[in-house]
Amino acid sequence: MNTVITVSRKPLGAGNVASNVLLHGCGAINVDASRVGVFQNTEPSGVDRRNAKLAELGYRPGAYQMGAKIPEGPPGRWPANLLLGHKAECVHLGSKQVVSTSGHVAEHHRRNVPMGENGIYGRADMHGTKPTCYVSADGTEVVDAWECVDGCAVAALDVQSGDSKSSGGRIGNKDGGIIYGGGAGLTGDYEAGDPGYGDVGGASRYFKQIGADMNTDIPSDLLDYLSTMITPTHVGGETLTALDIGAVDWASIPDGKYHGVIARGEPTEEQTEHMWRVVKPGAHVLLIAPDERPTGHKGACALEDRGFEIRDAILWVREAGRLHYVPKANTRERNAGCEALAVKRKGAPIYELSEEAAADEELVGSIMEALQAAGVAEDVVESFVESGLAKDLVPNEFKRSFKKRVGGGKYGNVHPCLHPDALVMTPTGHCRISTLKVGDRVYTADGEFHLTTDVSHHPYTSPNLFQIQVLGTNLTTLASDNHPFLIWRPVRTKKGGVTGGTVLWVEAQEMRKGDYTMTPLPATKPFPEVEVLDLKGFEDDPDFWFIFGLYVAEGVAHGSVGASVYPSFSLNVDEQHLVARIRKFFEPRCKVSVYSKNGSEKGIQVVAFDPVVGPLFVELCGKGATKKVLHPMVWNIDRALLGSMFHGHMEGDGGKVRTYWQSKTSSEALSAQLRLVGDALGYRSNHHRYGAKSGSINGRVFKHTSDENHLRFFVGNQDISGRKPSRPLHLDHEGRRYVLSYVKSVTPVPYEGDVWNLSVEGSPTFQTVVGVSHNTVKSREIMVRLLADVPKEALVMDPFMGCYDESTEVLTREGWKFFSDVTDADEILTRATEGHLKYARPEARQAYEYSGEMVQFKSRSTDLLVTPNHNMWVLSHADFNASRPARQVRADMLDQNLYRIPCGGNYESESDLLSREMMYLIGLYVTEGYFDSAGYDDVVICQNKGAKWDEMVANIASLSPRSKGGRRFAVRLSAAEMHFLRENCGTSKYRKFLSPTILKNRHLDALFDAMVLGDGHRTPTGQVQYGTVSPRLADGFQELCLKLGWDSTLIARPPKEAMRDGRLVKGTKPELRVLVRRATSKKIDTHKHVSRVPYEGMVYCLTVPNHTLFVRRNGFTSWCGNSGSTALACLETGHSFIGIEREPDYIEIADARVRYWERAVAGWVSTTIESDVPATTVHEAAVDEGGVFDLFD
């Protein structure tokens, strides 16, 4: 059982918490006395008695191995708001001594001695925060000892987590260096280190353990601990314990007597009134929930209704089965095995013999013997001269004879992906994966069309893609070596018969001839959210759908768009049965006419003058042989109606040939749709695409411009037989039927370039032209799926990330917005690792109040203010020189002198609406133009005649500019074009702007050039300066710079002053200057440009798929990281969780984020925030001589 203890407080009676403590003695939490204890070793750990410097600084041997300058006795870990309860049958054995694995310092060392020599374990670090150790000189430590029984929450958590060690401590020298390990015996000038642990054990050691009493369900251990937490000892405070609220004689208690109350149950309104009366201002009331309602919600509401502040909640876990430990790998663990992964991948580092060594037969023989002696596989030994060896297989004594193979040395591809031209099934047919966008739907393994939530691509790092070809189509798919496909692998006899098989996911490089790829049959309603057209009562008419199928095959639309569109069918004179069926359907409502085709002896045209059905047919599939595509609502019609449409199409463009139907179409989209329609109706379909063919009419040679798609539809399913060769057509698996496609070949194809993948909502799959493949997923989706098998009552442990200050803006589709103004509907501009820019909706938004230190990045080109645990998006100096991609590093962990922040990005235009000349004219208009006030549809540009005038006129020559006299020229536009300019650029020079419609268009360079020519200038060094008095126009110009790949800074200058007629005239609007740098990155010197500053106010962040945001602060733009979404996955799935943070100071950050999201999620969610040094969901705010008190404010 989990029991919640509500932490509430009576409002303060004297200003802030510190004042309240001085006046009333309460208002804070006694952190020191509530810490989770760590046993102290009593013996000195080899401290050098001759080291007078340490003694001068106050370090005491024996207190801690590191000799940290701290109060008597180990403080223990920061108290967590998670308590672990032992069972009553568990026995506390006291303590025991165990072997520790923490580091040590074996001898004296000066600060200039290199680390790793003379017995020092650890490393030198300029920015580390490792704590000190609790380990004796003999390498042992004292730990708490319990003998637990089955069902104990403590034992269950330790079994899940396994043993791990905490870091040892640090001592820093005055030069800022840090030495980790046992610091005893160090000489030189050193500063105090942080207290630490260095202990070993399970995860339970991070939390307070509560022993159980046999005779009561509320252990005395728990009451003692809670009382210690809220009772101020420096004033002899009193706390009332009331496990039965109703039994307390409240009337006999004087007003303001108690410094705190510990109660159990659900107090009535009268009882909460008594509690309010008997406690001092700032006193805490801890309310233990009753067993029948362990969440404590009703009691917490009662306290809050009376006026108590609900400060927090403590979760008391009382039995096993209520915790689920989800560990996360640290950096070292994540990187471990990368070399092995690289060896497994194609393109891993390969070392081969030099030419001279390869010619030495004796040397080759010696190397073979060494490889055999090392147990290397025989086939590797025999082929190493030709194939080379992985780095770890090269014998040490022969390394000089090997060299790295040219073209080797790059790691294999990590993320499974497809060639950019790989075809993916969508509701409107096949689409190239590189053309898909977020929000498009794709066909998945559950037989439905699901939304695409992310489209990612990156450079491919393996040498080959694998081309997969299956029977039934000449279309192939090129996939990365590790891209998974769903297949059925049959078990065959020697004669080719099939005795069974297995469904499994295999990587493309592991697929082989004889496997079968799988395509699911469509679900009954595969597109549940599709737009449904009004079919005027024909929805359930099979004749309507048959004639529509005939229109898809042979139909054209006569007339203009609107009610005058009539369906027409191109038929053969022998197809009178189709003419009769057309007449039967249309003639009750309209006239049907039959015409002979010009130049054709047997061709006829059947026209139905139906003003209702004609437009419906056009809406349902369009018009034009190569452009026809079925409307997505067709997927949801009844199977019988779908069959009518299918047979109508077969009658028009196909026919029955022996045992199958066949048809042809020049529409690529329609051919893919018809194939899936055939699958839905139970056919086994083939699809072959052939190039355009030449032909002749009346002696004139012509060539088709479109490919021709041939379709065949087979009836029935071949039985699986073990006695003769068998190729089954369908397979039933896990309640769903799949079409099987025999794999003819899997061939490696050399490839260099980008590869692509998708994230799909609701399914980890999507359908390629050869079969179902796996998709890639975002971090939150991964965590949601990981949590699927985790019990809802379990607790999940996870870390958090940081945020920006309230003055920071983020770039959205609609322009710059402060984080507080961003909504879920906004599209945020993000950047993929390889530099491609894309818009994505936020997965999550964070906002909370923060008081503490922030990290400021301030240089001539950068201005950022973020929480210490925020992710920066940077390149180290080594990354930059090696052309590696940027990576995310916490702001407080930038441990090198020099970093670079990437600038700009590669923006692919999303619109061709405006021509190059029109984009140039827009640039001139927003800088130098106005509308003719005489009522003409003229855009007038003001410019002195000269080189600029000539350049402007030349660049819009196709728009026919003409002189208006003096320093003006004009361009006549249509009424629609003038309206467009007014709506998308504004009119007043103080309010002109660039709309999203303009900034997503092609020819952004023309817009930029015109704006700079009009109101800017270029310096000899290549920099650009642009000026305007319109804030919105300056915002748009900075977005324009980003999309062109340049960095920019916005600077506001005071209004200009000028002398007019002897009077000083002062402007009212500041001048905005945008400074543009054509740079791929900008430098950050951690010594010059990074500092810590105090901050109090709101902080914000977003979570986006690419984990990068383009932000602006005080006019300075920068790419930066975003917040994580794992905790949000827990909220989404309804799991409770514990957040793991590196430092207690960051607990408040994580806690505030979670509280924000709890308010956004329906229902009550238990959340607890912890640190590596476990801490409550509060932060340290004041230090008193009597001890450290944690202040909630």
Descriptors:
single chain, 1193 residues, alpha+beta, seven-stranded antiparallel β-sheet, 27 helices, globular, disordered C terminus
Characterization of this structure:
There is one protein chain. The chain is an alpha+beta fold. It contains 27 helices and 71 strands. Helix content is 21%, strand content 32%. A 7-stranded mixed sheet has the order 11-3-15-1-14-13-12. Strands 23, 24, 25, 26, 27, 38 and 39 form a 7-stranded antiparallel sheet that branches. A 4-stranded antiparallel sheet has the order 28-29-31-30. Strand 54 (929-931) and strand 55 form a beta hairpin. Helix 11 packs antiparallel against helix 12 (378-387), helix 13 runs parallel beside helix 16 (639-653) and helix 20 packs parallel to helix 24 (1004-1015). It is globular. The chain starts with a strand and ends with a strand. The model is unreliable at 39-74, 101-135, 168-196, 328-347, 407-412, 777-782, 1140-1146 and 1160-1193 (pLDDT under 50).
Give a short overview.
With 1193 residues, the chain is α+β, with helices and mostly antiparallel strands.
